[in-house]
Amino acid sequence: MTVTLADVAARAQVSPATVSRVLNGNYPVAATTRERVLKAVDELDYVLNGPASALAAATSDLVGILVNDIADPFFGIMAGAIQSEIGGPGGRAGGERLAVVCNTGGSPERELTYLTLLQRQRAAAVVLTGGAMEDAAHQAAVAAKLRRLSEAGTRVVLCGRPPAPETGAVALTFDNRGGGRELTEHLLGLGHRRLGYIAGPRERTTTRHRLEGHRAALVAHGIEEDPRWTVHGRYDRQSGYEATLELLRRDPSLTAVVAANDSVALGACAALRDSGLRIPDDVSVAGFDDLPFSIDAVPALTTVRLPLAEAGARAGRVAMGREEAPAGGIATVRGELMVRGSSGGPRG
Amino acid sequence: MTVTLADVAARAQVSPATVSRVLNGNYPVAATTRERVLKAVDELDYVLNGPASALAAATSDLVGILVNDIADPFFGIMAGAIQSEIGGPGGRAGGERLAVVCNTGGSPERELTYLTLLQRQRAAAVVLTGGAMEDAAHQAAVAAKLRRLSEAGTRVVLCGRPPAPETGAVALTFDNRGGGRELTEHLLGLGHRRLGYIAGPRERTTTRHRLEGHRAALVAHGIEEDPRWTVHGRYDRQSGYEATLELLRRDPSLTAVVAANDSVALGACAALRDSGLRIPDDVSVAGFDDLPFSIDAVPALTTVRLPLAEAGARAGRVAMGREEAPAGGIATVRGELMVRGSSGGPRG
DNA sequence: AGTCGTGCAGCAAGCGCTTTCTACACAGCG
DNA sequence: CGCTGTGTAGAAAGCGCTTGCTGCACGACT
């Protein structure tokens, strides 16, 4: 039924070994022979059997990219950049690799299962993107898996995720703490003293780091934080909307709202507008990430730009062994404060 | 070095065959034996060798999802929905499948190469999303590949993509033409008579269909279209910005701008604002797709909602054989007009 | 002219798993 | 007490490919 190497070999009047060598191009084959083989491949419409090949060669051309939410451009942009460096078809790299992105949906179990699946496929590399869960048991489980993957020769890279010590994984970590701090300092510099903070889900490293940066800025300015000023939510627009209403209810005198990310900030803007408040005249708003749509908000969003594409590209190259890993296996990627129209001095 | 089935068998004091059967659970194994095997698996930290398994069983648990641009939520949302139905880890489905999304970047070659790669892996199913290239040669090549895939037992589903006759592929097609027509009719109903249109890239089916719908509406209302009113661009924000300036330059008397999609519409809004025009007082704007951020534009975007998640979910189920394919292998998915603040009656 | 590279091609042994077919108990039956 | 049926485990033959090693020409040496 399906065409095999042997069929091609028979048609080209050579041994299967020769066909294999022509296809892999890692062994001298006479030009005329090669031609003959290629012709046969073409005529027979032969397609290599991936599993068989992977089994025999004990290697695979699969590269896995794990993302928390594929519908979120934050991950989409990174994944795209990673993938373009992985080579994938048409990429810079020579060998054709199947770069595949796996959507964990933020679920720890899924993350683990995908890791196992990739381990099963003997993936050439795995890139994990975005914040990690802070659950200790889960982190240990992931660390164990990563270690096992590394040991098996799979290159493991973390992109926008905190380092995983002793796992052999290379980490390109976003400086969420520093970015959060810088952002809040900007607001403080404008004169704001009562700032609401809409944090992401509790058990995420990203959430914690950004919040820590925010608080560090407050502390540095001698501002005592009111516990009512922090609300936790999800990383999406609706959550930002609801959280903002909640913040407003708790303390209507807030003059600024700092959001966990840009989507949340957009929701916050909508909530403020619906509450009859002007931005930034009545309340300033700040986001995080600087996703493409942030500049289109009205007013444009003040936020922290994360070099998603650059970091992803670098992660991709490291995963392919095309770029050296940073010293110590850890690099910190800094964000850049983008001051735009959504932040201004407090009213009065 | 790596643990194999045989190792597990030895430790559990059974034959490799038994271990395999325990793992696959498709053959009666005594409870006590099963326990023993499972214990050994656990102790040895055994992970099945995917390629070997796929080779022996002549099947694979890989499902491919092709998208044009992974950074675009349009595709992200569909991919996420598809993937959640595919089962993936933690999904509804029993068997664990590796649902992988492949980013073609809109390149025909990449699309073809990914298809070959998936064919190589003997993928269980393949879902192609989004518009297709209109290049005849490429379409023929893709059709040939799809046919071959179907014949080899891979289920092929097109989601938001026009049907591919004679390939055995099931198609869930978006009614881009109808949506485009409805949208423009809405604008005409408001009294607009001079409408600019920012189309997507020329060689895409989606582009053509939406434009055809737009023109059909114009024709139905007896409006003769000025060739200056149409500009082609890419499906992104910047393109929308530039195209709008161009439209304005060509004919400053336009009272409405219809965009190829929401991102383009956002760019159009920015360009209009930067040109000192108010929306919708001076110029109305309409998008397409109704991505999550569209409602946050100021004013909120009038657009056509495409049930991306629903269509994706359905495509996923069909790909898994969990839902029957529509009659004739083709279903048309309609959009829904969402009238919001960005459209209003023309000035004057 | 004899000998030794050198360049290419083939042989055959797996890679780690699945699955058919066979084998063996043991229980139930006449 | 022998026979068949049922439930469970094992032996072994591949799945389609890669690759170390062997083998054979042929030209280039001495």
Automatic annotation (TrEMBL), chains A, B:
Transcription in keyword set: yes
Alphabetized SMART domains for the sequence: HTH_LACI
Molecular function as annotated in GO: DNA-binding transcription factor activity; transcription cis-regulatory region binding
Occurrences of domain HTH lacI-type (ranges): 3-57
SUPFAM superfamilies (alphabetical): lambda repressor-like DNA-binding domains, Periplasmic binding protein-like I
One Pfam family linked to the record: LacI
InterPro entries according to UniProt: HTH_LacI, LacI/GalR-like_sensor, Lambda_DNA-bd_dom_sf, Peripla_BP_I
Coiled coil (UniProt feature): none
Record keywords: DNA-binding, Transcription, Transcription regulation
Protein name, per record: LacI family DNA-binding transcriptional regulator
Organism: Streptomyces parvulus
